[in-house]
Specification:
It is a single chain. The longest helix has 33 residues, at 316-348. This protein has helices at 15-26, 38-46, 60-65, 81-90, 108-118, 133-139, 149-162, 180-209, 214-225, 232-242, 252-255, 265-276, 281-293, 296-305, 316-348, 355-361, 372-382, 393-400, 403-416, 421-433, 440-451, and strands spanning 8-11, 31-34, 54-57, 72-75, 99-102, 124-131, 142-147, 165-166, 169-170. The protein starts with 7 loop residues before the first strand and ends in an 18-residue tail after the last helix. The model has no long low-confidence stretch (mean pLDDT 95). The protein is an alpha/beta fold. It folds into three domains: 8-174, NAD(P)-binding Rossmann-like Domain (Rossmann fold); 185-433, N-(1-d-carboxylethyl)-l-norvaline Dehydrogenase, domain 2 (Orthogonal Bundle), CATH 1.10.1040; 442-469, Up-down Bundle (Single alpha-helices involved in coiled-coils or other helix-helix interfaces). The strands form two sheets. A seven-stranded mixed sheet has the order 3-2-1-4-5-6-7, sandwiched between helices. Helices cover 55% and strands 8% of the residues.
């Protein structure tokens, strides 16, 4: 092994880096990984599949020298300065034509900056969004590469081999120009935030509102996952309700503190959508709910001060059926908003994102994989340039068949005191987007009244201003 050249290098052998590199080796590529921690390089070699060629080294120079050219070097290190530090350490070691890959959750403008920095040096840089967690990395992730086409062509044989497969199609494809890969992954994570929050809201209404036990919730979510709600997140939710706590006699979910963590990608999605003028209220509320969850001590104090508490919802069977419909319609709204954001970014940020590719690679391997993605994929086959999936007749009919359930659950939540912000915002988005005349004519009148901001008219072209009062 000492004298042979390797096909693929990995910088950073945490769980994700190690698992992805072992996946590469399992598909016949000679894999070498670098980490400063000798224990991590030892773990890499110890966990390699029999018959594969895997080597761990503690010298970056040794790894680079051991790679065949053009070198394919992937970084899976924390986003931000660590990525820049690795790039600077690689620069004296690599040669023009080599490929450097950032596989982390990187802010898209950082990816664009690095691409522009390395291009004059003759180096190919590509940002790749990777979804699927530890298990996905090991057995088949969903991957979203964007930017350098030459790099994509060189990486395609490796990435197509290791990606998850759906209908014999690899869940990896080109996402567009510049930082499109990391942008698509960021929006993926925003959609993930929204779906997770809506599942939590459904759980709250059914558990506190209708008194369903964890055993009943396990059976219910298992049943839902065998029908139109079939998805990774619904599947793992069913499993969570069954898990017992090793330290007590309770179910583990009941022992977990209600403070949600976040790594920032959902917040990025909301911030950038605001800058772009794209409405993604369900994703925005998912970020807000995580922020509110962090205020645990304040929430406990406020809970003790309020005059009334959440009420029991009497008609359990009806609530279960409506919640199923509400979750289905709400999840569709999450995807609709995220994909509309990609449509705008494709044009406004000049990324030329083939959105059908994003939908295609999300069908397997990733956290937001769902049978719904087949429906979306078909919609983009019918019209690749559709700006919003609610304009697709088939999908619109699917939403209409479930929207009354969403209305009912939102009403029950509001009337009985259950915070269901994502479901509420999903309904508001649908009602606003499908309303031909919104009351914002009054808002424009107000703006013109106090600030002479002008307005447009319904009966003629041009900008108008009135001396009010």
């Amino acid at each position: 092994m000492d004298n042979q050249l390797f096909d693929f290098g990995m910088v950073g052998l945490g769980v994700m880096g190690r698992n992805l590199l072992l996946n590469v080796a399992d598909h016949g590529f000679k894999a070498i990984g670098f980490d400063m921690d000798p224990q991590k390089t030892a773990d890499l070699e110890k966990t390699a599949s029999p018959g594969t060629v895997v080597k761990g080294v503690n010298s970056l120079e040794e790894m680079v020298k051991s790679l065949s050219t053009p070198r394919r070097i992937m970084m899976l290190v924390p986003a931000g300065k660590p990525v820049d530090d690795v790039i600077e350490k690689l620069l004296p070691l690599v040669e023009p034509g080599d490929i450097i890959i950032d596989g982390g959750n990187t802010y898209y403008t950082d990816t664009l900056r690095r691409y522009q920095y390395l291009q004059p040096k003759g180096l190919h840089f590509i940002g790749i969004g990777v979804s699927g967690g530890e298990e996905g990395a090991r057995r088949g992730p969903s991957m979203m590469p964007g930017g350098d086409l030459t790099a994509w062509d060189h990486l395609k044989p490796v990435l197509q081999s290791i990606a998850a497969k759906v209908n014999e199609e690899a869940c990896v494809d080109y996402m567009g120009k510049g930082a499109a890969g990391h942008f698509v992954k960021m929006v993926h994570n925003g959609i993930e935030y929204a779906i997770m929050q809506m599942i939590c809201e459904a759980y709250d209404i059914l558990h506190r509102g209708a008194g369903l036990t964890n055993e009943e919730l396990h059976l219910l979510f298992t049943d839902w996952n065998n029908a139109e709600l079939r998805s990774y997140l619904v599947e793992i939710t069913a499993d969570i309700f069954r898990q017992k706590d090793e330290l007590t006699d309770a179910h583990l979910v009941d022992m977990i503190l209600d403070k949600a963590g976040a790594k920032g990608t959902g917040k990025w999605t909301s911030q950038i959508a605001m800058d772009m003028g794209v409405a993604i209220p369900t994703i925005d509320m998912a970020v807000t709910m995580r922020n509110l969850s962090a205020l645990k001590s304040q929430r406990m104090e406020a809970d003790a001060l309020k005059s009334s508490h959440a009420k029991t919802i009497a008609d359990k069977d009806s609530l279960i059926q409506h919640t199923r419909q509400a979750l289905f319609a709400g999840i569709i709204m999450s995807y609709v908003q995220g994909l509309a954001m990609l449509h705008t970014a494709s044009k406004d940020l000049e990324m030329d994102i083939p959105i059908q590719n994003a939908v295609k690679v999300w069908r397997g391997g990733c956290i937001i994989r769902s049978t719904l993605l087949e429906t979306f994929y078909e919609a983009y086959q019918r019209n690749p340039q559709i700006p919003n999936l609610l304009l697709d007749e088939k999908l619109s009919c699917l939403v209409k068949a479930n929207i009354d359930g969403l209305r009912n659950v939102v009403a029950q939540a509001a009337l009985n005191g259950y915070p269901a912000g994502c479901l509420m915002n999903a309904l508001t988005y649908y009602d606003a987007y499908t309303t031909g005349r919104l009351p914002l004519n009054l808002l424009q009148a107000q703006r013109d009244y106090f600030g002479a901001h002008t307005y447009e008219r319904t009966d003629r072209e041009g900008k108008f201003h009135t001396q009010w009062g």
